[in-house]
Amino acid sequence: MNIQIRSAWNAFRQSPHAPKWLTWAAINVSIAAYFGFGLVAPASVSKTAWLPGETTHGHYQIEMDCNACHDPGRSADGPSGSDVMQDACIRCHGEQLDRAKDTHPAKKFRDPTNAERLAVLDAQNCLSCHQEHVPEQTLTMGLTLPADYCWHCHQEVADSRPSHRDMAYDSCATAGCHNYHDNRALYEKYLDDHHGQPDHLELASLPRRSTAASLSGVFRPDRPLAIDQADHPATQSVDQRVLDDWATTAHARAGVNCTHCHGGNGDTAWSEAVAMESCQQCHAGQVASFQTGKHGMRLAVGLPAMTPDQARLPMHAGQAHAQLDCNACHPGHRFDTQFAAAEACLQCHADDHSLAYRDSAHAALWQEELAGSGAVGSGVSCASCHLPRIEGETGIWVNHDQNANLRPSETMARQVCTHCHGLEYSLSALADPRSVASCFGDAPTERIESVQMAHAWFLQRQAKRDARLKKP
Ligand code: HEC
Ligand code: HEC
Ligand code: HEC
Ligand code: HEC
Ligand code: HEC
Ligand code: HEC
Ligand code: HEC
Ligand code: HEC
Ligand code: HEC
Ligand code: HEC
Which residues does a 6 A CB cutoff place in the pocket of ligand 1? Predict the structure, then answer.
């Protein structure tokens, strides 16, 4: 304490107003501490009281981690509308939008010819279209702007495309037509290339995965291990069931021993619990993708694992407190991927779509594949659609982000359905809410027109070109 402050303090202590001032100061300090704590407290501490409104379907799981989006350095009074970091959106979603070949990335609008458009709608800022904590104006996919804004920038489309002339100005983003970001399954060339396909392709099959090729880290598959080669410490009592289960797995077949997962091999101590980080040594890609979807997003920001009792979607009460980690679908020690692909999901999920799965044609195909009467790859489980097998640099691997192709759902058409169905049929089924609700137990009632329209457009263009060539 320097001298000036000390003498001021002494003078103050002797003043008649001291007690009142101290009470006021104490109240202020505790208010500041209350709010300050809200800013710096660990994400697991409840901060619901500071939320201005319900958080979106995409983000509510991590809403307690205010600093994931709000910059705590910018305002002293707690999170506000002006301290949201666009960088944060990009950090979590940038890669995903790049992969989707975003049709409207911020950089597209750097061109000065767009200045006039941007003055009305700043398309370089995520927040222009995705606000938070405003449930009354939030649409699906966190959109907080009515979908007719496409018109603002694309009014000329009715002139350049006669086919679009009579369309409603708010119909651009209707299912099966266009998306703002992700048009991987909707651009003209792709649509035309898949024109005229039958509803059911002759060769209807999903690719096989190449798990060994997708391994990360230093471990490389080795000779198969037998029960008597298990390397758990002699002091550790182990149920015979554990040994039997382990011995039948792909792990034992590839030389993965007890201590690879449990530790206890010299440097580390044996631990009965096995955390996600242990799997991560060898399966980094599966872990990373798990963390960007709704199953693993809480673990990604350091919050405790998601449990069904916190969900907004309907869940089976019996699983209310099940932890969403790797073991939720891969219980030790079988790591049975057939169980994981449908039975595991149905232990938790209880919405109409999930419950309808068992009666669908797809489920019958899956049962046939399991029974051996159907060809390998001909069955359709929950995982076939939601944890799709993706072509990567190292071969086919399982994307554990079940949100990556969920919305907009046309992404799923390209990644999954078109292995077995024509594109037009796939888009039509995905656009039909009845078909989705029955888990594709019903054929689509209406046909999406985009495939036909794209084809007609290319034919017209070709005809014009031919006519020009024929002119003398
Ligand atoms: C997933 C990102 C995200 C998280 C997590 C988040 N917010 Fe926000 N918040 C936003 C966005 C986006 C806005 C809107 C910014 C704008 O209006 O420009 C916002 C706005 C606000 C506002 C201003 C509302 C208004 O009406 O002006 C407050 C207050 C706020 N947030 C508090 C919180 C608190 C407290 C937490 C943690 C308990 C939190 N937020 C967590 C993204 C987030
Ligand atoms: C800590 C990482 C993180 C941050 C920061 C973050 N998000 Fe998200 N966001 C997610 C996850 C995880 C999901 C849920 C999975 C999914 O839908 O991809 C999600 C969902 C969404 C969705 C909805 C998808 C749907 O189908 O409902 C939108 C839109 C979105 N985020 C936009 C934003 C914007 C805009 C910001 C910046 C204000 C932002 N996010 C900040 C991780 C993040
Ligand atoms: C001009 C409006 C607009 C802006 C600006 C915008 N979005 Fe979107 N966003 C949409 C619309 C519309 C959807 C609904 C799906 C679609 O049409 O692609 C969407 C969907 C999403 C989704 C979920 C679906 C998907 O394709 O993954 C994410 C995540 C997302 N936006 C993130 C962002 C981020 C991050 C930014 C900033 C870099 C941003 N958005 C800027 C309009 C916008
Ligand atoms: C802020 C202005 C703006 C808004 C809003 C906007 N766009 Fe665009 N859009 C552009 C620009 C700029 C381009 C690229 C130049 C062009 O092709 O006209 C483009 C391109 C496109 C393309 C062609 C993409 C390609 O690469 O083939 C489609 C399709 C499209 N937009 C659809 C939409 C839809 C649907 C919406 C509403 C969900 C929308 N746009 C909203 C400015 C906008
Ligand atoms: C929601 C259920 C679910 C969760 C949670 C889950 N998995 Fe999976 N996993 C599956 C299913 C289903 C398959 C098999 C999919 C197939 O055969 O196409 C699979 C396959 C795998 C494979 C082999 C497939 C490949 O990519 O070649 C590995 C490795 C794997 N999971 C690791 C993990 C790890 C590590 C975690 C925790 C981060 C995890 N899984 C969490 C359902 C899940
Ligand atoms: C691929 C990783 C992995 C390998 C290899 C592995 N474990 Fe485990 N082990 C786990 C996981 C994960 C759990 C937690 C089980 C759960 O929650 O479903 C566990 C649990 C256990 C438990 C305590 C709970 C129980 O089920 O009895 C024991 C004991 C155990 N393992 C012993 C072994 C022995 C002995 C071996 C070698 C023969 C082995 N483990 C190989 C991952 C592994
Ligand atoms: C030391 C490396 C290593 C660790 C640690 C490890 N795995 Fe594996 N995992 C493998 C190998 C090797 C394979 C078999 C690859 C093949 O098909 O040849 C495999 C296969 C799998 C499969 C596919 C099984 C099948 O029948 O196709 C799943 C699921 C899986 N691991 C999950 C996990 C989970 C969950 C953990 C953490 C509890 C884990 N692994 C830890 C190396 C490891
Ligand atoms: C331990 C319980 C549990 C298991 C097992 C489980 N899930 Fe989930 N799942 C959840 C919870 C909880 C959520 C988040 C729901 C919410 O936000 O309301 C979720 C979210 C999802 C979503 C995203 C929904 C959305 O609207 O964004 C899909 C898709 C999904 N799960 C599919 C599956 C599939 C497929 C499997 C099996 C391979 C599976 N789940 C296994 C509990 C589980
Ligand atoms: C043939 C592909 C397919 C199969 C099989 C499938 N789903 Fe879905 N699932 C979808 C599509 C498409 C959507 C809707 C995406 C959208 O438009 O919002 C969806 C939506 C969901 C949702 C979100 C529901 C909501 O109300 O937001 C969950 C959870 C889910 N599926 C879980 C499952 C489970 C669990 C199974 C197996 C029992 C399963 N799905 C089987 C394709 C499939
Ligand atoms: C592995 C191949 C395969 C995949 C992947 C697949 N399907 Fe199917 N689907 C089939 C087969 C085969 C049938 C016909 C079964 C029968 O008639 O017995 C079918 C039937 C259907 C039906 C008709 C049900 C009826 O009773 O008429 C719809 C709708 C459907 N699929 C939609 C989809 C959608 C949407 C996707 C992607 C999200 C998809 N399917 C993915 C193979 C597949």
Answer: 47, 50-52, 59, 62-66, 68-70, 79-81, 84, 127, 131-133
Residue 199 lies in a domain: yes
Whether residue 107 is contained in a domain is answered as no
Q: Does the predicted model carry a pTM greater than 0.85?
A: yes
Residue 23 has pLDDT above 80, yes or no: no
pLDDT per residue as tens digits for the range 159-171: 888 889 889 888 9
Question: Stretch 300-328: mean pLDDT, rounded?
Answer: 97
Ligand 9, residue 175: give the atom nearest the CA: 17
The predicted-structure confidence for 173-223, as pLDDT tens digits, reads as follows: 999 999 999 999 999 999 999 999 999 999 999 999 999 999 999 999 999
> Which residues, in sequence order, are CB contacts of 364 under 8 Å at separation 6+?
none
Residue with the two structure tokens 């009305």: 120
- CA-closest candidate to residue 246, choices 233, 235, 231: 231
Task: List, for residues 54-69, the tens digit of each pLDDT value.
Answer: 999 999 999 999 999 9
Residue 76 lies in a domain: no
Q: What is the pLDDT of residue 76?
A: 83
Task: Please report, in angstroms and rounded to a whole number, the separation of the first and last CA atoms in the chain.
Answer: 97
**Which residue CA neighbors atom 36 of ligand 5 most closely?**
326
How open is the CA angle 290-295-300, to the nearest 5 degrees?
A: 60
Residue 453 domain boundaries: 174-207+306-472
E strand or H helix at 96: helix 86-99
C-beta of 62 in contact with ligand 8 (< 6 A): no
Q: Is residue 472 part of a domain?
A: yes
* Ligand located closest to 63 CA: 1
Residue 304 DSSP one-character state: P
Calculate how far, in angstroms, residue 293's C-alpha sits from the geometric centre of ligand 2: 9
Separation of 139 CA from ligand 4 center, angstroms?
Answer: 20
Is residue 93 lining ligand 2, measured as CB closer than 6 Å?
Answer: yes
Q: How many domains does the chain have?
A: 1
